[in-house]
Specification:
By secondary structure, the protein is of the alpha/beta class. Among the domains are: 164 residues, Rossmann fold, CATH 3.40.50; 30 residues, no CATH class; 43 residues, no CATH class. Helices cover 42% and strands 16% of the residues. The strands form three sheets. It has a six-stranded mixed sheet, sandwiched between helices. A two-stranded antiparallel ribbon has the order 5-6. A hairpin with a 2-residue loop joins strand 2 and strand 3. Helix 1 packs across helix 5, helix 4 packs across helix 6 and helix 9 packs across helix 10. The chain starts with 5 loop residues before the first strand and ends with a helix.
Length: 346
Amino acid sequence: MAKILRTLIICEKADAARRLAEALTESKPRVNKKRNLTYFEVDVKDGLAVICPAQGHLYAVDSKDRSSRRTYPVWDFSWRPKYEVERGYNYQKGWLEAIRELAINCDRYINSCDYDIEGSLIGYMILKYACGGVESKAGRMRFSTLTKSELRQAYENVSAQLDYQLAYAGMCRHEVDWIYGINLSRAMTESARRYSNNYATLSTGRVQGPTLRFIVEREVEVSTHVPIPYWTIESRVNVRGEQVEAQYSKGKIQVKSEAERIVEQVKGNSGVVDDVQERTFNVQPPAPFDLTSIQAEAYRHLHLTPSQTLRILERLYLEALISYPRTSSQKLPPTIGYREVLGGLS
């Protein structure tokens, strides 16, 4: 009897794992639980697929020497399970142990986390550390939506190796953030302690520090701004029985009495149209949203904060209603069924 090929597929979130399981089988996926990890099993044409979620990052950067919290600079670091580094993640210990046990009995491994830098890193770290160094023989699923058709296509066309460039880019970003953050934060904390003789933890980082500076500069601009009043003149004129809106050609007027004088001069008078200019131009369709632009539009029209918008977008993505939102790209991939989408909207 031929051995059944067992494939372990790592997804980024529980909803994504469920959708992938439902996409790979016509029947109902089998739901199992190991420790505190809920995972899915489905029969596929090449064997058995074991699909489990990661719930985001399970590994984080930490100092190799944890004996002193005040020494800096610190350059020696390693990747460790997140529950060993940060508080509030103890549940991930059982999660990682369950993934490790599932990986032992599998013959093939696939990273099916979100197709971006963070998703590539999440899957890479799990395959490297939790699964016992199987990243070199793991494949990568690539998709931008969680629709059944695209997930099936991504599974059938899984790449032979991981997207190492994205994973390494993610590692670099986390490591640089850690180096900046821990050293600058410790330097600030120690400097403040020596100056005030009181201890208080101060935090800064590669993004946090410059962002705070921009906020301070903007706040200073707002608080020191002296408004200068001005007036504009707008009117409605009757042109052959139609109301036409008109504006004063010179725009802003700095003196109120001057604006009132102009209004009195033209009020109730007739005028002559001495020049008409017409032009035709093409308006290009708007580019698809990236994360920043849709957050700006949502705030402008709906007064939603960026974090609120992102939560809504991620929920819509997990419901397979939109493409992956955490992107700076304004291009949509050809794998999206545009004809099917437009047909559903018509």
